[in-house]
User: What shape does this take?
Amino acid sequence: MPPGLVIVHLRAVPDDIVLARSQGVQPPATIDSVSPQQFVKVVRAVLAARRP
Assistant: This one.
């Protein structure tokens, strides 16, 4: 990784899931997630697309 490069991964979590988690109950639905392998694939694509 080049020094100073920051990659941020954000995702939206619906309010009903956040509320359920904060109350310690089972959320009404599952959330799609990104695996570490998928994240690394995206990071590599970003690095490859950077201009020198």
DSSP finds two helices and no strands in the chain. Helices lie at 15-22, 36-49. The CA atoms of residues 28 and 37 lie 27 Å apart.
